[in-house]
């Protein structure tokens, strides 16, 4: 696609293209300075508010990836600050990554010894998920055979095959969910949302039962602390309604 767009820009002798892709009005820029401006200026911080983004957000516009304005600023700042406090980008996280790396090397050694091929996606995904899961929930999947880990992998793989982050055909033709919900990927998102929400709500409820205002072991603890501190603030984005959307961050 980028070659076709570059050809259009050449034909019209412009570094800024405006066109409609499906139902979306789109602006494409070329050149280092323009790209830098788009990625660094507040004017371009807006995110799409579409059928797909709300479906991905369990019917709401929450999280960080597809939000903007005050909500995005507050939630992003909070997530980055507290993820760093529990180890993100620090030696603690490096230690967790090294643990997963040692396990990977062990698996590679076992596979090599018997001449067995290694599926990179299936092999690497559990390691990445484990590190992120620890930072978010404070827990680690018991093993690579953990059924919850397997289910999570299956759902993400199915979603990646069904569409990309733009929502694909489902976002362009949302009415197709009534005709071919499985084929267009609608049912995939519903299953992913339901399973993710169940998994995270189970962890959130466990955190609520053992809540200690003096302890912050992970992102969920930090969110619960912020909820408690902002309890009387009606404008707060830290409420129980948003707690189940931690997974969308």
Keywords:
249 residues, Cytochrome p450, 2 domains, two-stranded antiparallel ribbon, 11 helices, 2 strands, heme, oxidoreductase, iron ion binding
Short recap of the structure:
By secondary structure, the protein is mainly alpha-helical. It has helices spanning about 1-10, 30-40, 50-55, 70-85, 90-115, 120-135, 145-160, 170, 185-210, 220-230, 240-245, and strands at about 15-20, 25-30.
Describe what you observe in this structure:
Strand 1 (16-21) and strand 2 (24-29) form a beta hairpin. By secondary structure, the chain is mainly alpha-helical. A two-stranded antiparallel ribbon has the order 1-2. Helix 5 (91-113) packs antiparallel against helix 6 and helix 7 (147-162) packs antiparallel against helix 9. The protein has 11 helices and 2 strands; from the N terminus they run H-E-E-H-H-H-H-H-H-H-H-H-H. Its cofactor is heme. One of its GO terms (biological process) is organic acid metabolic process. Keywords: Heme, Iron, Metal-binding, Monooxygenase, Oxidoreductase.
The main pleated sheet reads as: 2 strands, antiparallel
Shape: globular
The strand line-up of the biggest sheet is: 1-2
Number of strands: 2
Counting structural domains, the number is 2
Radius of gyration: 21 Å
Strand content: under 5%
Would you give the CATH topology of the largest domain?
Answer: Cytochrome p450
């Amino acid at each position: 696609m980028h070659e076709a767009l570059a050809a259009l820009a050449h034909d019209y002798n412009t570094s800024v293209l405006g066109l409609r892709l499906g139902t979306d009005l789109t602006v494409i820029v070329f050149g280092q300075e323009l790209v830098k401006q788009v990625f660094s200026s507040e004017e371009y911080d807006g995110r799409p508010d579409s059928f797909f983004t709300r479906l991905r957000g369990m019917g709401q516009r929450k999280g960080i990836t597809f939000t903007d304005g005050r909500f995005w600023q507050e939630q992003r700042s909070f997530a980055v600050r507290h993820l760093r406090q529990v180890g993100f980008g620090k030696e603690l996280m490096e230690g967790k990554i090294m643990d997963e790396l040692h396990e990977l090397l062990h698996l590679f050694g076992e596979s090599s010894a018997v001449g067995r091929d290694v599926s990179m996606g299936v092999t690497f995904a559990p390691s990445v998920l484990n590190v992120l899961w620890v930072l978010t929930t404070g827990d680690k999947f018991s093993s690579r055979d953990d059924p919850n880990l397997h289910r999570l992998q299956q759902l993400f793989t199915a979603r990646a095959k069904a569409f990309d982050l733009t929502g694909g055909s489902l976002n362009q033709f949302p009415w197709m969910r009534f005709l071919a919900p499985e084929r267009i990927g609608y049912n995939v998102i519903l299953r992913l949302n339901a399973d993710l929400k169940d998994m995270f709500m189970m962890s959130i409820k466990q955190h609520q039962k053992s809540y200690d205002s003096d302890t912050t072991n992970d992102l969920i603890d930090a969110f619960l602390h912020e909820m408690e501190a902002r309890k009387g603030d009606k404008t707060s984005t830290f409420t129980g309604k948003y707690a189940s959307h931690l997974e969308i961050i």
